[in-house]
Amino acid sequence: MAYPDLYLLIDGQRLSGGGRRTHKVVNPATGAALADLPLADAADLDAALAAAQRGFDRWRESTPHERATVLQGAARLMVERQEELARIATLEQGKTLAEARIEVMMNVGLFNFYAGEVFRLYGRALVRPAGQRSTVTKEPVGPVAAFAPWNFPLGNPGRKLGAPIAAGCSVILKAAEETPASALAIVQCLIDAGLPGDVAQAVFGVPDEVSRHLLASPVIRKMSFTGSTSVGKHLAKLAAEDCKRTTMELGGHGPVLVFADADMDKALDTLVAGKYRNAGQVCVSPTRFIIESAAYDRFLTGFIERAKAVRVGDGAATDSVMGPMANARRLDAMDRLIGDAVAKGARLQTGGERIGNAGFFFTPTVLAAVPTDAAIMNEEPFGPVALINSYADEAAMIAEANRLPYGLAAYVWTSDAARQRRVARTIEAGMVGINTAMIGGSDSPFGGVRWSGHGAEDGPEGIDACLVTKAVHEG
Ligand code: NAD
């Protein structure tokens, strides 16, 4: 399949050339260049800001029916274009086509959910004596600057666009320069479904330049960012300069507590698939496997066996289970983190190597007995590495789960109902899976606590994060 043309989408216009700087987009399965992406300059960003203000002035007045029609129309187009969208995502990001198709359907579910939610943006009337009236209403926060990373090239833009559009906001989306065609294709579905071109725009650029420019503008009233904790902290400071509202979806270091009474085959099948999904480049990836000592040997042996059986290959090939890593930076990170862990005493049980010279392939990796002072036990690995350690009892397992300042997703595997509730309550995380790896859904808030960020996307909470509250009192 041909890779599409790339451009900036500002005020409904496709812009490229004109002496703009460019970024080379590559196929992670081969390392070959796909296309040159034009990068926005200051004048482009100013044009996008002016359009976003006009788009907001117009879209805040739209009816729930108009918003629902656009969201449902875009969802229908995504279903029709599922194969084309999935192929673009696989070409530029590397994940398997099966995973990319699921991403399309996640957007479809989310947009349809929001199409219903727009009719439920209720306020309330307070109890007052006759002749007085007090109401509380919800209003769209204003133009949103949204920054989406490359790991879910279709799903992240969908999340960044769906909620603000449902709430009546306009959006300037800066998706990752590594995966621009997927983001453009999602915006195009909205525009083809009738969304005015000043309500949703897509820009690309030098990330720090773009975020500084947009966040310095009083036009932007909210920032939504998904990415690493370090970049998130930096952007939160920039947003604070103008007291802008923020939603921050940052990194994680997913603890997985497995007790000896768990259904071990189900746990292993689920967790191995979850670990190597998108080559581990998932913020809710299961990462620190915290195993009760009585089950340790059985769990480790079963995990290694299954990890060795994961077929790695071009995401576009039908028999690949795990594609390449998305970029060369992740390969370097794997070498550094695994090398450091082994030097500090971890046992490399399988994997730990790059595969071939073309593309960014890495073997599914298992490290056992990883010391707490290894960098990989503290830094989000964002790669296909499972860290499997043994702990004496529940108290030690919970202490390890809560040791890090991250709090995104946590997983608990046990058949003891009382323990399920106890552990779920004690773990610091935004999302907890009990005997499951499914911790998201269009109707359910997705977000973390502490260094994993604040605010949520998806669910009613996702729209609420794009609304402000106004109380009006009449005497
Ligand atoms: P990175 O932190 O440099 O970039 C992550 C994302 O943030 C990219 O999409 C990038 O374009 C964007 N970004 C970076 N600096 C920015 C800035 N100043 N303004 C606006 N956007 C900016 O790292 P990376 O090498 O692309 O990814 C590596 C790390 O990022 C991973 O280890 C992981 O921790 C994190 N990450 C997290 C998620 C997530 O879903 N939470 C997704 C992708 C990457």
From TrEMBL:
Similarity remark: Belongs to the aldehyde dehydrogenase family.
Broad class of enzyme this protein falls into: oxidoreductase
Assigned EC number: 1.2.1.-
InterPro entries associated with the record: Ald_DH/histidinol_DH, Ald_DH_C, Ald_DH_N, Aldehyde_DH_dom, Aldehyde_DH_Superfamily
Domain Aldehyde dehydrogenase: 21-472
Keyword Oxidoreductase: yes
Key words of the record: Oxidoreductase
Record protein name field: NAD-dependent succinate-semialdehyde dehydrogenase
Top-level taxon of the source organism: Bacteria
Pfam family, one: Aldedh
MF (Gene Ontology): oxidoreductase activity
